[in-house]
Design a protein that fits this description.
The complex is a heterodimer of chains A (about 240) and B (about 180). With about 240 residues, chain A is mainly alpha-helical. Helix content of chain A is about 60%, strand content about 0%. Chain A has one domain. Chain A contains nine helices and two strands; from the N terminus they run H-H-H-H-H-H-H-H-E-E-H. Chain B is of the alpha+beta class and about 180 residues long. Chain B is built from three helices and five strands, in the order αβββββαα. Chain B has a five-stranded antiparallel sheet, sandwiched between helices. The chains are: A mainly alpha (about 240), B alpha+beta (about 180).
Chain lengths: ~240, ~180
């Protein structure tokens, strides 16, 4: 029971040298001690990273984690802060999950992951409060909600729980950066349409009449919808061009 | 199974205890600095440290109210009253209200709020709104927003926030009226 793989069988194609090496840990020793040699394939790691940033972007492609994505993106700065906080939690929790993946029985997998994620969210919350007090004042309400961001648990369970540490970190970084970029983009569009500024820099001067709808929750949905429609349109155009 | 879950929880507890030890000092310091900044902004000129010169009174309804006292050369010149408006548009609005010894408002600042950006948060971004409270007393103003027949502006599309703030400031004045004189 103790040394069972946490989740169902991994397709043979997904097993790599690093998986084989670090996956078969000697009982009682950390998996990585087994492989002092470079245990990862750089190309694969790069792909793990890039996939999360764009091809499988959490917000724009998978429509996950929309609660924080829509709630805090009233300005580009808010979006960036929320994205970076989530990124930090993802890297920490995915690495931890990858390190202990061979010791966690399948039956308590999800509770263990949630405890890990909640721990790191609280750590981020405390450190933001102590060292970035103004950011914490703006985002304070939403930081604890990172625990229930399905992207974080999703990557921990679907990826980190059956991959080596380097791959888990690359994936968490990729998905986290993708999430951050999505939130910055959404925040910038809403800030631009709502207040005529981006990152607090006014583009049209005082002449711009505030368009409040885009700062309110319904405006978040509308802005996201417009951005998705624009993206799909561009993709269709380029597909026809080829 | 139980052992694994317990191990994870214990490790989590250790990490949390460590983080708390590192951050509790800076967090307390940040909060203190915030209080000092707001006290300096709302109180009349003073040369003591009001954040250390505080007293607690029990109001008629049994709640405890903290008061910060400002002194000039040892003589009491004003009081700062931290109050909470529970009836904002979204969540509590925490305010610091400064009152001089004649019951005249010397300043109001917002400590924390979660009002709608662009609507309710005009109480902060509109640079003329909060200063308009200065010089008001319980007697020389009608304590309501204009829409309700009072003296204070509301914002287009946002009446709930100003109403909540006006009520909370009046409450602070009433506390002063009863306690300070």
């Amino acid at each position: 029971m103790q040394h069972e793989r946490p989740t169902g069988p991994v397709p043979a194609s997904a097993l790599t040298l690093s998986d084989a090496l670090s996956g078969e840990a000697v009982a009682g020793r950390p998996a990585l001690d087994v492989a002092p040699r470079p245990a990862f394939n750089l190309r694969e790691i790069g792909d793990d990273f890039v996939r999360g940033v764009w091809r499988e972007n959490g917000v724009f492609k998978q429509m996950l984690g929309l609660c924080p994505a829509l709630a805090v993106t009233t300005t580009a700065v808010n979006g960036m802060a929320m994205g970076l906080a989530t990124l930090a939690v993802m890297v920490a929790s995915s690495s931890s999950v990858s390190i202990i993946r061979n010791w966690i029985p399948g039956s308590v997998r999800i509770p263990s992951f949630i405890v890990i994620i909640a721990t790191f969210v609280t750590v981020v919350d405390l450190f933001l409060n102590a060292f970035a007090h103004d950011v914490h004042k703006t985002l304070g309400l939403f930081i604890p909600l990172i625990v229930v961001n399905c992207i974080v648990l999703g990557r921990a369970d679907a990826f980190a729980a059956r991959r080596s540490l380097p791959r888990a970190i690359a994936d968490a970084l990729g998905v986290g950066v993708g999430f951050t970029l999505a939130l910055i983009a959404l925040g910038a569009v809403r800030e631009l349409l709502g207040m005529g500024s981006v990152f607090g820099i006014s583009l049209f001067g005082d002449a711009y009449p505030p368009f409040l709808l885009f700062l309110l929750p319904p405006g978040a949905f509308i802005a996201l919808g417009l951005m998705l429609a624009g993206g799909t349109y561009l993709a269709a155009l380029s597909a026809r061009g080829n | 199974m139980v052992a694994a879950l317990m191990a994870v929880c214990i490790a989590g507890a250790v990490v949390l205890a460590w983080s708390d030890r590192i951050t509790s000092g800076p967090i307390a310091e940040q909060k203190r600095r915030e209080v000092v900044r707001s006290l300096t902004a709302v109180l009349p000129p003073h040369n003591n440290a009001p954040d250390q010169d505080m007293s607690t009174v029990v109001l008629d309804d049994g709640t405890e109210q903290t008061l910060y006292l400002a002194r000039m050369e040892g003589q009491w010149v004003g009081t700062a009253v931290p109050v909470t408006a529970p009836d904002g548009y979204s969540g509590n609005i925490d305010l610091m209200v400064g009152v001089d010894r004649n019951g005249r408002l010397t300043g109001v600042v917002v400590l924390s709020h979660a009002e709608t950006p662009g609507l309710g948060d005009k109480m902060i971004t509109d640079e003329e709104w909060l200063p308009a409270f200065r010089g008001r007393t319980l007697e020389n103003a009608r304590w309501a927003v204009k829409k309700d027949g009072g003296d204070f502006d509301q914002f287009t599309g946002a009446t709930i926030t100003p109403r909540a703030v006006v009520n909370a400031v009046r409450h602070a004045l009433e506390v002063c009226e009863k306690v300070c004189r």
